[in-house]
Design a protein that fits this description.
Blueprint (H helix, E strand, L loop, with lengths): L4 H32 L2 H5 L32 E7 L2 E8 L2 E6 L11 H11 L6 E7 L13 E6 L6 E4 L6 E5 L1 H14 L11 H34 L1
Antiparallel strand pairs: 1-2, 2-3, 4-5, 5-6, 6-7
Helix pairs in contact: 1-4, 1-5
Keywords: Membrane, Plasmid, Transmembrane, Transmembrane helix
Protein name: PepSY domain-containing protein
Pfam families: PepSY, PepSY_TM
């Protein structure tokens, strides 16, 4: 049986378009969003003020070596500030602990009020805080960042959210609606609907080759159609 190639390729192109056409549209739409919206805005750089380190006379601070009596297994000791208060940040096997730099007294974990004050001090705008929550489980938008952390959300259309460490008071990360849309678009773009990080998964590779086959079959049909039209015009 002789294969009628135009009919076969046309049927193949149609079925490929039905199977993979929607994903091609999603690739186009999500790619357009990721190109149009500047990556620095996606990262939320416009939401955060640069850190201003206050001036502190280290001569009035206690010697870091004295903290080894409290944290004998310390692996790192460095100076820092908590709401303008000079502190020693000590890292040990049990995590990070802050100590008052002038008295050596241990500082309690950051409270909800302190987390809100820290977030407001780093925020570039003046909207009020709408919620403060201590999270012990990582939300989808904080995958890869180990909890606990304070989630401080501001009352604005794009829901800016700061994540504050309860141990050190540091800004762990920031999120907002444009980032969340980007994350969803990225998931659709790479077709990793679970972790949203595998850019070489089987589903994506298979879909890519199907899209290539659809494009090639469409190109073949386009090239094949022109000679046919010219022959019809000559006969006429």
């Amino acid at each position: 049986m002789k294969i009628r190639w135009p009919s076969f390729v046309r049927r193949l192109h149609k079925w490929l378009a039905l199977v993979i056409g929607l994903q091609v549209v999603l690739w186009t739409a999500t790619g357009f969003y990721m190109v149009v919206v500047h990556i620095e805005r996606i990262h939320g750089d416009h939401l955060v003020k640069p850190v201003e380190r206050p001036v502190f006379d280290m001569g009035s601070a206690i010697a870091p070596a004295t903290l080894l009596e409290t944290v004998p297994n310390a692996t790192d000791i460095r100076s820092s500030f908590l709401l303008g208060r000079p502190v020693w940040r000590v890292t040990g096997s049990g995590g990070v602990q802050l100590f008052d730099a002038t008295t050596g007294e241990p500082i309690q974990p950051v409270s909800a009020e302190q987390a809100e004050a820290i977030a407001q001090s780093r925020y570039t705008s003046d909207e009020a805080v709408s919620s403060v929550r201590l999270l012990t489980e990582s939300p989808m938008e904080m995958q890869g960042r180990k909890p606990p952390y304070w989630q401080v959300t501001f009352d604005r259309w794009d829901s800016p959210t700061f994540y504050i460490s309860p141990e050190t008071g540091e800004l762990v990360s920031r999120r907002h609606s444009l980032w969340r849309i980007f994350d969803f678009a990225w998931m659709l773009h790479i077709m990793d609907y679970d972790e949203r990080s595998d850019v070489n998964n089987l589903l994506l590779r298979t879909s890519t080759w199907l899209a290539v086959a659809m494009a090639l079959s469409g190109a073949w049909l386009l090239v094949w159609a022109f000679p046919r039209r010219r022959k019809k015009k000559k006969k006429a």
